[in-house]
Amino acid sequence: MQARQAILLRWARRFTLWTAVLLLVSGCTTLIPQTVGLRTSWPADVPRQVELTQVPFYPQDEYQCGPAALAMTMNTSGARVTPEALVPEVWLPARKGSLQLEMLATPRRHGLVSYRLAPRYADLLREVGAGNPVLVLQDVGMVLPQWHYAVVNGFDYETGTLFLRSGLEKRQEMPFSYFERTWLPGGYWAMVVTPPDRIPVTATEERWLEALLGLARGGNVQATVRGYRAALARWPDSLPAAVGLANHLHASGALAEAATVLRTALQKNPESVILVNNLAQTLSDQGNNREALAVIDRAADPQSPFASEVRATRQLIEERLRSKGG
C-alpha cells in the first residue's frame, strides 16, 4: 500500500509540475504572441541577419531620448541635424519627454517623411532588412511605466536577438521576446523616416498618402511633390496620388506638368468629376479658357457632390473669357 501511495504521489507531483509548465508557456505565448509567430513562421522576404552599422549613435541624456533617436533616423535619411538642435522641436519640459505627435511632425519640417508602421513585428523586421532603421517606443520601467525611444538597427534570427541604439548603449542586444514585452504597452508604436522619394517597403497606398498629408502640412512643397511622384510611380492607377501630385505641382507654378498629370489620370478615370474640375481650373490658369470651358462641360451633373465646385470653376472661366476674350 505504501509503495502504491508513493507511486501515486510521484505522478501527482509530475502532473502538477507539467501543469505549471503548460500554464507558464501559455502565459508567455499570450504576452509575446508576435515573437512566437516569428519563431514558427519567419517572413520569407526578410533576411536572417542584418545590422545597419551606418546608423549614427548619439548617447541619450536623461529624458531626451526622443531628440537623440530622431537625430539617428533623420541623419540616416540625409538630414544634417543634431539632438541638441531637435530638443526645442520635440522635447516637452513639463512632461520630461517627447510625445509621438512631435516625433512624427519634426522630420516633416525638415523635408522628410514620417511613416508610422503597422503594429506588426514582421513589418519592423522588413524595414530594417530594407535598410531603414526603425524608431520605437518602449516601456522599460521595472514597476512603474517608463517610456523610452530607441532605434532598432539590426537583428539576428539564429540567436533571437535585436540590436538597438538605446540610451548610452551604441549596440544594445535584446532578445526578441523581451523586446516585445517592452514594445507592446505602447501599442507596438514604431516609425521610420525616409526621403520623400523612397517609400518604405511595408507602406500601403493609403498610409503613405496619409504620411504625405502630414509632410504637406510642414510647408515644403518640393518635398511633397517628390513624395507624390514616388506614390504615383508605385501605384500608377492611384487617383488620390494623381490629384495630390497635380495640386502640388499647381501650387509650385508647374501648371503644364500639372495638366499633363491630370490628363493622364483622366484617361484612366474618365468619370472623375474632381479630375475634370481640376484640369479645367489648371487650363484656365494657363490662359486656355476656351479649352477649359469645353472640359468643364464634361462635369455638368447637378447631382454630383462636387457640383458647387464645378459651378464656381465654370463661373471663373466665363468671367475670364469675358474679360480677356479667351
Q: What's a quick, concise take on this entry?
A:
The protein contains 14 helices and seven strands. It is α+β, with helices and mostly antiparallel strands and 326 residues long. Strands 1, 2, 3, 4, 5, 6 and 7 form a seven-stranded antiparallel sheet that branches.
Keywords:
326 residues; alpha+beta; Cathepsin B, Chain A; Serine Threonine Protein Phosphatase 5, Tetratricopeptide repeat; 2 domains; 7-stranded antiparallel beta sheet; 14 helices; 7 strands; 13% strand; elongated; disordered N terminus
Describe the protein.
This protein has 326 residues and is α+β, with helices and mostly antiparallel strands. It has 2 domains: 49-194, Cysteine proteinases (Cathepsin B, Chain A), CATH 3.90.70.10; 205-324, Serine Threonine Protein Phosphatase 5, Tetratricopeptide repeat. The chain is 55% helix and 13% strand. It has 14 helices and 7 strands. The chain has helices spanning 2-31, 33-40, 65-76, 83-90, 100-109, 121-129, 176-183, 205-217, 221-234, 239-251, 255-268, 273-285, 289-296, 307-324; strands spanning 49-51, 113-116, 134-139, 147-156, 161-166, 169-175, 190-194. Strands 1, 2, 3, 4, 5, 6 and 7 form a 7-stranded antiparallel sheet that branches. A hairpin with a 2-residue loop joins strand 5 (161-166) and strand 6 (169-175). The radius of gyration is 27 Å and the shape is elongated. The chain starts with a helix and ends with a helix. Residues 1-28 have low confidence and may be disordered.
